[in-house]
Amino acid sequence: MSEATIPPGTQAPVFYETDEHHHDAGGSTMLGFWLYLMSDCLIFAMLFAAYGVYGGSYAGGPQPHEIFELPLVALNTSMLLLSSITYGFAMLAMNDGKVRAVQGWLAITGLFGLAFLCIELYEFSTLIHEGAGPQRSAFLSSFFTLVGTHGLHVTFGIIWLVTLMVQVGRKGLIAANQRRLQCLSLFWHFLDVIWIGVFTFVYLLGVLR
Amino acid sequence: MSADTHHDGHGAHDAHDNAHGHGHSSEGAHGTRRDYVIGFILSVILTAIPFGLVMSGVIADTRITAGIVMVFALVQIVVHMIYFLHMNAKSEQGWTLMALIFTIIVLTICLAGSLWVMYHMNANMMPTMDAGAM
User: Which A positions 68-97 lie with beta carbon below 8 A of chain B?
Assistant: First the structure.
């Protein structure tokens, strides 16, 4: 410990101070946001657990293979997958400092996200009209909670995306906006990872049951 | 001790800034166009195969299909982590990976525990309830 003590007046403490200050300008944001995503991951884990437990409790109601339309789910999945790569292109445009390209790719990403939401809402309304609403059975309650929570995340992602498009338009690709775009990038790709779990464990395995 | 670590931290930071030509501290790793395209192509393949298997019903035994589908999902999650989320052991001095591993451990305990406990509870409770009802 005594070896590490730096005598006053040397360069080292000053160097340390400036470094610390430099780091504070958003240096810890990405890690903090990642920790948020991990906590979000636990929320979804619990919803998946609930679905895993209740997924077979039909209460005499409809079963997965009767109500799930896989072509629709496949279309939905492709929408989310396409939005992932277009967001990736937005990030690449950001690295090149092209404001217009960033906004263009963000707009395309938002449209794919919106298409995803519309398809999901269409699916939900069809299910509810068929009498397979969330109040029908424990299976449907847990299904609507899990898929609905994911859809809610996508909704907020789109709101955030539009906000960033406006901000990038007003202030350009400043450091703060680049950081925000990186956070949204993590969020968006994270939602895609969750969707992999949803279409596998809810839809595909549900139909196989 | 502290002086050394801070020297190291600063050196790594400088190297990062120089490599990318950015003036600010963008610790999140950047992907290249190649990364995104590879990730996308792999994802499409890894999505299309399970959907195809389930929708066509090529394999008669649904258990085998279910197993294959789950393996594909796990592989695709890893692909997304690497190519889209740019996970690696170095970002944020390894703390992102540390947080991820911790989350996976908690997640596994919760999922496996819930399913295990509730399955056995159902298995043990249901017959007596049915017998009572009849």
Answer: 70-71, 73-74, 77-78, 81, 84-85, 88-89, 91-92, 95
